[in-house]
Request: fold
Amino acid sequence: MASSLRALVRQHPVITAVLVVSTVAGALAGPSVLPPEWSLARRMIGGALAGGGIGLLMTATKML
Reply:
């Protein structure tokens, strides 16, 4: 599994970078955008999921 993941990253470095950057950006933006009554961890995880979803949409539209 790990070797196939490494091979995928080597074959598609731009897609990997887009996914990683969008996930990290979402995790950093989540605490300021999501409701303050949520815990910090929940806001960061929610932001990371949203950022990862946006990254997937961005890469999927380029691949199709």
